[in-house]
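thread from #wetlab-drylab

HS: before we spend reagent money on co-crystallization trials with flavin mononucleotide, can we at least see a predicted complex? here's what I'd submit
DV: go for it
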Amino acid sequence: MTSIDTNVLFRPLTIKSLELKNRIVMAPMTRNFSPNGVPNEANAAYYQRRAAGQVGLILSEGTVVDRPASRNEPNVPMFHGEAALAGWKGVIDAVHGAGGRMGPQLWHTGAVRSGEWEPEAPVESPSGLNAPGAARGQAMGDSAIADTIAAFGKAAADAKRLGFDTVEIHGAHGYLIDQFFWAGTNLRDDRYGGATLKERSRFAREIVAEVRKAVGAEFPIIMRVSQWKQQDLTVRLAETPAAMSDWLLPLVEAGVDVLHCSQRRFWEPEFPEVDGENGLNAAGWAKKLTGATTISVGSVGLDGDVLNAFQGKGSGTMSLNRLVERMERDEFDLIAVGRALISDPAWTAKVQRGEHESLKGFDAAALAELI
Ligand SMILES: Cc1cc2nc3c(=O)[nH]c(=O)nc-3n(C[C@H](O)[C@H](O)[C@H](O)COP(=O)(O)O)c2cc1C
């Protein structure tokens, strides 16, 4: 097989104070390996290996803000408290030591359950729902909302103080912020609810504005968004480009520099009825509509998407070809890689060296490598 020319993936990019050596981003991936929420040396070594493998930017696994019920698993790392923040300092120092750049993915799991574990405090969500018709937790009052917004701001300030290069706000996949976006889980009749995406994005906008206040003008803010929800993969928040603009443009105006548009397969067109089967993907449309820098993601280097994740086999060279094509059209700016980077910390370096035949797929055994 002939090797693929991937030079387009290895152009540098500067986003405000963040200088990236290439366009490959490690996607945020929850690991549940932080005992009692505190990252340790094994966590630092895990991220350091990916930095040493030449990935341009690392986004951490989701790490939760300081709210009593912000996580749904005991070993999800916290991004608050002295011990956890000291652990994160070890992580960013290790990543910088290997020449990497990194931001934490700031998270609140809202009403999403993961297994049987329950936080000590009541679960919180916009309207006491985890999905349309599925009651869980309690609807947030004004003070819970204000405290949550403040908690995101505090976490972002801590990220900057510890030396992280950026932060990503997790607004995707049906977790708290996305539960506000989603009409099916946001039935509020106050100013955080409403019939339009623009109205329902108010909570997210206020978080972004608070984070911007906390980090200053030059520190890049990323926000991850997704049409789909883990509760219902068929949901599309925005059915049209106009609705997408209504949703995302206010976020950019509030201070988001980079939109990270989560898709399961990056080559799938977002609005094929508008620009055809080879049309722009979610990140492509987000860039076109808002002018923001965008990150795409979904099955790079693999033959199976994330829901068939654990069977994604093969070197995925077909997806690499498609990626290069879209990058050459400047459809989006950065590409996140998830499972391929779990399987092989050196994935980026191997792609750059043209060792495409030696890239691994992903299989369940790779999960053992998470440590
Ligand atoms: C084990 C695992 C954990 C994940 N955890 C998160 C997470 O914490 N936050 C998030 O936004 N996405 C999470 N995702 C989704 C990934 O970031 C990514 O979007 C998805 O795996 C698709 O990319 P891939 O096909 O390259 O793996 C996770 C995915 C996997 C496989």
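DV: Residues 55 and 207 are 28 Å apart (CA to CA).
HS: ok that's useful, forwarding to the group
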